[in-house]
Design brief:
By secondary structure, the protein is mostly helical. It has two domains: about 55 residues, Orthogonal Bundle (Arc Repressor Mutant, subunit A); about 160 residues, Tetracycline Repressor, domain 2, CATH 1.10.357.
Length: about 230
C-alpha cells in the first residue's frame, strides 16, 4: 500500500511540475493576463477536468508560479550572500544586488510576473508573503551583521518620519535602529527600480554599460544604508 502511495505521490509531483513548466512557457509567449488552464491542459494532452485536480483555478496556478518565482529569486540572493561570505558588508550587499539582477535578466518573464504590471482580476494571497520576503531578509541579515559588528551610519530622520520608521523596525527588524530600517526600505525600493528599468527596457538608448552602471549604483545604495567603511566581522 505504501509503495502505491509513493508512486502516486511521485506522479503527482511530476504532473504538477509539467503543468507549471507549460504555464511558464505560456507566460513567456502570451503574458500572465492570458494564462489559461484550458490552454495548459490542451498543450499537455490532458482534459481540463484532470488539470483542475491539481490547480482548481487559474488564480491558484498563478499563485504557485508566483511563489516559485519569489523562492527562486530568494535562493539566488541567498546563494550570492554565501559566495560573498568573506567580503565586507558593503561587498556582500553589492554581491546580493548583482545576484538579483542576474536572476532577473536570465528569467525576465518570471520577474515580470512578480514585479511587473498586476494581473487583471488577480490578487496575490497572503501565502505569497513568506517567499516574497526572502530577498528583504537577506538584506536585513547583512545590515544586522554589520550593526552587530560595530554599527552602521544611519542618517538622522526628519521628525515626521520617525514614528513610521519605528513602526517599520518593530514590524520586521526590531534589532536594528529605526533610522537604519528606513534607509534599508528606501534602498530596497531603489534596487528593484534599477532592475525594473533594465528588465523592462527603460535604459534603452540611455545606459550602454549596464553592468558597470548597476554595480556603481549598488555601491551607492550600500553607502546610503550606512555600510561604507564597515569592516567585515573577523
Amino acid at each position: 500500500m505504501s509503495t502505491a502511495r509513493g508512486v502516486r505521490a511521485r506522479a503527482r509531483i511530476e504532473v504538477t511540475a509539467a503543468i507549471k513548466d507549460e504555464a511558464r512557457r505560456q507566460l513567456a509567449a502570451e503574458g500572465a493576463a492570458k494564462l489559461s488552464l484550458r490552454a495548459v491542459a490542451r498543450e499537455l494532452g490532458m482534459v481540463s477536468s484532470a488539470l483542475y485536480r491539481y490547480f482548481p483555478s487559474r488564480d491558484e496556478l498563478l499563485t504557485a508560479l508566483i511563489i516559485d518565482a519569489y523562492d527562486s529569486l530568494g535562493e539566488a540572493a541567498e546563494a550570492a550572500l554565501v559566495r560573498a561570505a568573506g567580503e565586507s558588508p558593503a561587498g556582500q550587499w553589492v554581491a546580493v544586488c548583482e545576484g538579483m539582477r542576474e536572476w532577473a535578466l536570465g528569467r525576465p518573464h518570471e520577474y515580470e510576473l512578480i514585479y511587473g504590471s498586476p494581473v487583471p482580476g488577480y490578487t496575490a494571497p497572503d501565502a505569497t508573503v513568506p517567499a516574497a520576503s526572502r530577498v528583504g531578509q537577506v538584506l536585513i541579515r547583512i545590515m544586522r551583521d554589520a550593526h552587530q559588528a560595530g554599527g552602521v551610519a544611519g542618517r538622522e530622520l526628519p521628525a515626521e518620519l520617525r514614528s513610521e520608521a519605528r513602526r517599520m523596525a518593530e514590524d520586521f527588524a526590531p534589532d536594528l535602529p529605526p533610522e537604519v530600517v528606513a534607509g534599508l526600505v528606501a534602498a530596497w525600493a531603489q534596487l528593484f527600480g534599477l532592475v525594473n528599468f533594465e528588465v523592462f527596457g527603460q535604459f534603452n538608448k540611455v545606459v550602454e554599460n549596464r553592468e558597470a552602471f548597476f554595480r556603481d549604483a549598488a555601491h551607492g545604495l550600500a553607502r546610503h544604508v550606512g555600510l561604507a567603511g564597515v569592516r567585515r566581522a573577523e
